[in-house]
């Protein structure tokens, strides 16, 4: 039995701009083991959501992808999702992969009752015999994700629920097909810190109780610390560093990772002097020839502008792409 559930190999996503293709995701490799929660972290615009949407096959029209996205069955069977037909991929994502989007109000249909939206996956994939069986299963799941009075909320419309409850509904929609992998794209961005903690706790509980893996897309290192077992740090479409969460927080190696961590507000830290990463993310297609981060890096050297560092392993399971680490 393979421990790997999903393997992304050399994924590249490009968007057509006039006569040229602008790369958004550049040769990304990500591996998700069975039962683990993996974080993909970076600033907005770094290609995290494009990576997640590539797995689900829901890229915007102008985007094109190449590479392999391999789904590993327990018996050793491997399926490349990039080679599936539209229907086969829809079936795969409906049953084996669930996705929670950033803003539930724009993802839920305002004209449909909550129960009908959650039950839609059951009906599409013919997982229940009749409407009553679907209703019973949805109500049980709404209760499991922490929605009070689930039978009453079954008939509610999205606008009648709070933001936290709508996000719980989105989690229920992703879970109704009992997937092996949950993809959560910025699942707590629109929530206050109290509700955020509840949603993060719910995601971990669901992963443990259902023996499920998760890929969590976020720009928040606090979310990574609270939820993830391993983490990939992405900048301008490339993985800059990857390690277990404990390794990364104890010994961040890439200047970008250190910048993200130093930007976290902490108790006792003067809020008037929060650290930020200098500069802005370059416009896609106008990044440096060498390391994408060199224009914002305080540790750069001349070759960083003209040569891209290869990935090296500095400790068991801890990988980084940076000349400074190679020099040390």
Can you lay out the helices and strands and say which pair or pack?
Elements: E1 4-17, E2 20-33, E3 37-41, H1 48-56, E4 63-72, E5 78-80, H2 86-95, E6 97-100, H3 104-107, H4 114-124, H5 131-144, H6 150-153, H7 163-175, E7 181-185, H8 193-209, E8 213-218, H9 221-227, E9 230-235, E10 238-244, H10 245-250, H11 255-262, E11 312-315, E12 318-320, H12 323-327
Parallel strand pairs: 3-8, 3-9, 6-7, 7-8
Antiparallel strand pairs: 1-2, 1-4, 4-5, 9-10, 10-12, 11-12
Helix pairs in contact: 4-5, 4-7, 5-7, 7-8
Q: What is the beta-strand fraction? A: 15-25%
What is the total tally of β strands? 12
Helix content: 25-40%
Describe the strand arrangement of the main beta sheet, using strand numbers: 6-7-8-3-9-10-12-11
**Whole-number tally of structural domains:** 2
Give the CATH topology of the largest domain. Answer: Rossmann fold
**Distance linking N and C termini:** 39 Å
Helix/strand class: alpha/beta
């Amino acid at each position: 039995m393979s421990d790997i559930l999903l393997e992304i190999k050399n994924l590249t996503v490009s968007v057509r701009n006039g006569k040229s293709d602008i790369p958004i995701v550049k040769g990304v490799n990500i591996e998700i083991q069975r039962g683990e929660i993996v974080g993909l972290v970076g600033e907005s615009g770094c290609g995290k959501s494009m990576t997640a949407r590539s797995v689900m096959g829901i890229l915007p029209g102008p985007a094109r992808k190449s590479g392999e996205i391999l789904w590993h069955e327990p018996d050793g069977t491997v399926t490349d999702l990039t080679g599936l037909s539209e229907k086969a991929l829809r079936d795969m994502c409906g049953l084996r992969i669930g996705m929670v989007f950033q803003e539930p109000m724009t993802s839920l249909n305002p004209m449909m009752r909550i129960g009908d939206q959650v039950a839609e996956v059951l009906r599409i994939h013919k997982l229940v015999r009749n409407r009553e069986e679907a209703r019973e299963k949805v109500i049980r799941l709404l209760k499991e994700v922490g929605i009070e009075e689930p039978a009453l909320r079954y008939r509610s419309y999205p606008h009648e629920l709070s933001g936290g409850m709508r996000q719980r509904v989105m989690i229920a929609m992703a879970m109704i097909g009992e997937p092996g992998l949950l993809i959560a794209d910025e699942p707590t961005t629109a929530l206050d810190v109290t509700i955020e903690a509840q949603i993060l706790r719910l995601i971990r509980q669901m992963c443990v109780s259902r023996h499920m893996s998760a890929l969590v897309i976020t720009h928040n290192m606090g979310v990574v610390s609270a939820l993830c077992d391993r983490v990939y740090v992405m900048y301008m479409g490339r993985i800059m560093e990857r390690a277990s969460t404990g390794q990364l927080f104890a010994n961040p190696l890439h200047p970008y990772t250190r910048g993200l961590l130093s930007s976290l507000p902490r108790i006792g830290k003067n809020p008037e002097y929060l650290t930020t990463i200098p500069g802005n993310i370059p416009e896609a297609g106008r990044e440096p020839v060498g390391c994408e981060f060199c224009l914002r890096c305080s540790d750069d050297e001349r070759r960083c502008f003209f040569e891209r560092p290869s990935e090296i392993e500095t400790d068991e399971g801890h990988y980084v792409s940076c000349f400074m680490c190679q020099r040390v």
